[in-house]
Amino acid sequence: MKQNLMKSLNRIGLLLAAMFLNLVAFAQDKGLDVNVDINKGGGQWYAHPWAWIIGGAIFILLLVAIVRGGGRTSD
C-alpha cells in the first residue's frame, strides 16, 4: 500500500515538474533575431584555424621530443 502511494506521488511530482519545465520553455520562445557579420579580411592571428593547427602540431612535436628524452638509453 505504501509503495503504491509513493509511486503515485512520484508520478504526480514528475508530471508537475514536466509541466513546469514546459511552461518555462515556452516562456523563452521569441522571434529569431540573427545578425551574422563576418569580416573576411584581416583579423587577429588566433582567429584563423590554420594558426591553431600549426600551433597544435608544434606542441605535439615538442611533447614527443621531451617525453622520448632525445632517444638516449640507459646502459
Overview of the structural elements:
The protein is mainly α and 75 residues long. The protein contains two helices and no strands. It has helices spanning 2-27, 49-68. The longest helix has 26 residues, at 2-27. The protein is flat and about 75 Å long. The protein starts with a helix and ends in a 7-residue tail after the last helix. The mean pLDDT is 83.
- Give the fraction of residues assigned to helices: 55-70%
What's the total count of β strands? Answer: 0
Kindly state the mean pLDDT as a whole number? Answer: 83
**N-C termini distance:** 76 Å
State the low-pLDDT regions, or none: none
What overall geometry do the principal axes of the alpha carbons give?
flat
Give me the number of helical elements: 2
Radius of gyration: 29 Å
Sketch the major β-sheet.
none
Structural class based on helices, strands and sheet pairing: mainly alpha
Order of helices and strands: HH
Strand content: under 5%
Topology:
Elements: H1 2-27, H2 49-68
List keywords for this structure.
75 residues, mainly alpha, 61% helix, 0% strand
Give a short overview:
The chain is an all-alpha fold and 75 residues long. Helices cover 61% and strands 0% of the residues.
